[in-house]
């Protein structure tokens, strides 16, 4: 029985899915951080661990095709990293091609049956991309917190700190003070200069926005505006949109605000709840092309 595999290799964890020819899930597995841009060659071992677990009880020789979605796909241009992944496929006994594509591609595939469209991802960072099959054809933002990632989790946290230091006697400032340990605005300034992980404050902002705090609500509304503006940079206003990343997949106020804006436009919207499954579906859809070598690899894209 021929099977296909899909992997979502992220900066925090790697997840793998095995499907049979009817689309039934035969196995799932998880591993450590699989972003080669952040972890280097060891990312291949994390991805291999996830696949090895997912393939438990399945003959690797039966795998007809696979797709790996990676945050930081451009790192595969490093010969040492490319060799590490090739060695991992060989160690697993995989004889089929295992193309590595940008995680925007697998996120889009996880959100619906569209062949082409847009994906908007918002987690710690934020990026939008146009996707066509296995290719990312255009990217907006994903520039990192200093130059972009507008509306992201890190952006939310940074805006919270900026408001708190100016308006110290507010519920939002008290939440920021509790998180940072700052007793006054001067201490908060000192804390912020060390460039802490501002994104850790995103859940606080979302919680306060859900409770009706006006400062948090204003931050969330602006985040949604900026995220939709990033989507508009792609120049495809009528394309279906898939939402991905923690802040747009979970039931957050950011997701609700973005959905409201997209529903006003009447565009179809999907949610990338399982990018590894999306990768496996891509492998099934493009399996013949991948085996013949005519499948395309996504160009390097920006991601978080």
Q: Write down the secondary-structure element order.
A: EEEHHEHEHEEEHHHHHEHHEHH
Mean pLDDT: 91
Tally the beta strands.
Answer: 10
From the alpha carbons, calculate the radius of gyration and give it in angstroms.
Answer: 20 Å
Q: In DSSP terms, counting alpha (H) and pi (I) runs of 4 or more, how many helices?
A: 13
CATH fold field value of the largest domain:
Nucleotidyltransferase, domain 5
**Structural class per helix/strand content?**
alpha/beta
How would you portray this structure in words?
There is one protein chain. With 304 residues, the protein is of the alpha/beta class. The protein folds into two domains: 3-109 and 274-292, Nucleotidyltransferase, domain 5; 114-271, 2-Layer Sandwich (Nucleotidyltransferase, domain 5), CATH 3.30.420.40. It has helices at 36-39, 42-54, 79-92, 103-110, 153-166, 171-180, 185-193, 202-210, 214-232, 246-249, 253-265, 275-285, 287-292; strands spanning 3-9, 14-20, 25-31, 63-70, 100-102, 116-122, 126-132, 135-141, 241-244, 269-271. The strands form two sheets. It has a five-stranded mixed sheet. Helix 4 crosses helix 12.
List the SSEs and their pairings:
Layout: E1 3-9, E2 14-20, E3 25-31, H1 36-39, H2 42-54, E4 63-70, H3 79-92, E5 100-102, H4 103-110, E6 116-122, E7 126-132, E8 135-141, H5 153-166, H6 171-180, H7 185-193, H8 202-210, H9 214-232, E9 241-244, H10 246-249, H11 253-265, E10 269-271, H12 275-285, H13 287-292
Parallel strand pairs: 1-4, 4-5, 6-9, 9-10
Antiparallel strand pairs: 1-2, 2-3, 6-7, 7-8
Helix pairs in contact: 2-3, 4-12, 5-6, 5-7, 5-8, 5-9, 8-9, 9-11
């Amino acid at each position: 029985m021929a099977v296909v595999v899909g992997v979502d290799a992220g900066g925090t964890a790697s997840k793998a899915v095995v499907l049979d020819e009817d689309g039934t899930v035969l196995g799932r597995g998880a591993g450590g951080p699989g972003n080669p841009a952040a972890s280097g060659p060891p990312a291949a071992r994390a991805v291999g661990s996830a696949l090895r677990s997912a393939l438990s009880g399945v003959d690797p020789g039966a795998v007809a095709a696979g797709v790996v979605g990676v945050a930081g796909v451009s790192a595969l241009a490093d010969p040492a990293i490319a060799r590490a992944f090739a060695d991992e496929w060989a160690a697993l006994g995989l004889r089929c091609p295992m193309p590595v594509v940008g995680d925007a591609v697998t996120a889009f595939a996880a959100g619906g049956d569209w062949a082409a469209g847009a994906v908007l991802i918002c987690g710690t960072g934020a990026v939008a991309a146009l996707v066509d099959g296995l290719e990312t054809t255009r990217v907006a933002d994903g520039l990192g917190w200093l130059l972009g990632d507008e509306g992201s989790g890190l952006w939310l946290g940074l805006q919270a700190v900026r408001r708190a230091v100016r308006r110290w006697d507010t519920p939002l400032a008290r939440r920021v003070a509790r998180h940072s340990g700052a007793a006054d605005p001067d201490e908060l300034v000192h804390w912020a200069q060390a460039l802490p992980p501002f994104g850790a404050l995103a859940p606080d902002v979302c919680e306060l926005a859900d409770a009706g705090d006006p400062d948090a609500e204003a931050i969330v509304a602006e985040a949604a505006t900026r995220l939709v503006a990033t989507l508009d940079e792609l120049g495809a206003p009528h394309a279906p949109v898939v939402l991905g990343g923690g802040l747009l997949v979970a039931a957050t106020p950011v997701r609700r605000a973005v959905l409201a804006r997209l529903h006003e436009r009447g565009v179809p919207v999907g949610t990338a709840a399982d990018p590894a499954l999306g990768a496996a579906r891509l492998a099934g859809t493009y399996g013949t092309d991948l085996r013949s070598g005519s499948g395309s690899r996504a160009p390097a894209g920006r991601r978080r």
